[in-house]
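Following up on my earlier thread - several people asked me to post the actual chain instead of describing it. Fair enough. Here it is, all 131 residues.
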Amino acid sequence: MKLSRRTFSASFKLKVVLKALKEQSTLQELFTKYKIQAQQITTWKSEFLKDASSVFDSKSAKDKIDSNGELLYNKIGDMHFYIDFLKKVIWRMSTTEKRQKVVKSHPRLSLDEHCNLLTIHRSGNYYKRQG
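Reply from S.P.:
Thanks for posting it. Predicted structure:
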């Protein structure tokens, strides 16, 4: 029988770490109460103390992250607009025009990806008309 690894939520870890920091109970008592190894509690405690200063850091770092995220969401929205526009343009093209647009040696897109974007079959790209 294989034992599965237990995972603990952040709130549970915080509760255990705070009890350990208050030193009202020993690591052995916490081990008995929560069934967690003393070494694990010590590790959580050291991680908590190492990152505790981030609580008091200025809000500007968080604001900078939020503004970067907002810029990225705007960029994604623009990309969706361009993709929708290009899909409409491609839809109006004939199959022959689409085949002419395929770049066979593109550095980042494979031939299969080109054909999928242009909504043509890859095998049709090799077709040579007779006569």
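Helices lie at 10-22, 27-34, 38-51, 59-92, 95-101, 111-117. That should answer part of your original question.
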